[in-house]
Amino acid sequence: MGKKINRKQAIKNLLALASTPILAGSLYSFNDKAEIGKPSPIRPLGNPDIKNPITAITVGAGSRGTVYGNYAVNFPNELDIIGVAEPIDIRKDRYSKKHNIPQSNRFTTWEHVFERPKFADAIIITTPDDLHYGPCIKALEMGYDILLEKPIAPTEQECRDILALQRKNGNIVAVCHVLRYAPYFINLKQLMDSGAIGEAISIQHLEPIEHVHMAHSYVRGNWHDSKKTTPIILAKSCHDLDILRWLVGKKCETISAFGGLKWFTSKNAPEGSTSRCADGCTVESSCPYSALKIYHRERQRTYVFDLPEDKAKHGDYILEQLAKTNYGRCVYKMENNQPDHLVTSMEFEGGATVSFSMEAFTSYHGRRTRVMGSLGDIVGDMNEFTHTDFLTGEKTKWDITVKDVEHYENSGHGGGDWALVTDWIRAVKTKDSSLLSSTLDASIESHLMGFIAEKSRLDKKTMTIHS
């Protein structure tokens, strides 16, 4: 994880952070008094110097398409959404209304967009995982710049095909590995690179999915079948593989993964349970995964139902959806095959090791990270991290909370979602991909790690990674 640095040099490096931004796009500004314990100031989101917005077409107006589209609402001088492709009418209509998209630029599927000559600067691809490859290849062929939701594509060969075509044509493509743009991880990388913990020897990283999120997305939801979408280590955790590769700063050489589907299976269905939670299940009131509890009584994650404008109708509408969609089914009686717990061990060039755990059964979410170095260690939880100096025993806390920073409260992943869009817009405007951290070249490594980790898990073998 980098050459050895003595303590005197580490102190000099910490002070030098004032002039060494981690991202080429420089989301963060520094002053000459930057010091340990004082996070780098967060530059406000947006590019005020841009007067004429780039134009974009959103392909997929679901949750992620809405997140990136909302940037255009808040920064209309930078991004203008002029088209949308979405097969669900209510989503398409709401998205079109929000962005004032003319009827002529509203499409049902991604294929319809490309039946017309190029009519925007960029394409935002936020379709389901298994529908990334088609629109991305077509957009590259037609000369669009691209904001591509992760994962890049469901197979290694498709990822390589996309990368090869992008290299050939020179399009600007940002992969939505948004954790690279989160202030928490940027400050964490700065501290590691400064040498304050000496040589980084090992990392332990936890992704707590949170039990309701797991049941919603990977048992009942769109990603419940890995064969129809992507394995969960890509669908959910390629963020984490990417950020770990970025923090280490070296290539992963070997990988070994363990885990599987243990709890959400028919053999664990309680006596008295029914195929749907509202079909007279006798244990519904005592089940933490009850669809009636989650969606109807607590109104969690109801965005998937595209609720009507009249809030008075929400209750009945949710019950109707629970009666006919997978979201109303018993979590023990689905056709799900995604692992609900996963442990991945990795060894990087130089011998540094990383242990990554993805866990469904937590009451909380938000990544937890521990970095162990030769001169100190770091413990963090996405809001703050604490550095301990082994020599002095001094503990210094870095608070990276972004809730009070303008616009960041509307951006997910610790502020990373919109920070990514800020840099992507600048890269498209200047045709300079070096302004991006999450380019295709940078992002494909973590995808290869994910594909090989899944093979390791299934074959129960330690695998070597070849570029």
Automatic annotation (TrEMBL):
GO molecular function annotation: nucleotide binding
Signal peptide (from-to): 1-24
Keywords for the protein's UniProt record, in alphabetical order: Signal
Record-annotated Gfo/Idh/MocA-like oxidoreductase C-terminal domain positions: 189-456
Domain Gfo/Idh/MocA-like oxidoreductase N-terminal: 59-176
Family matches, as Gene3D superfamilies: Dihydrodipicolinate Reductase, domain 2, NAD(P)-binding Rossmann-like Domain
Protein name, UniProt field: Gfo/Idh/MocA family oxidoreductase
Organism: Polaribacter pectinis
Lineage: Bacteria, Pseudomonadati, Bacteroidota, Flavobacteriia, Flavobacteriales
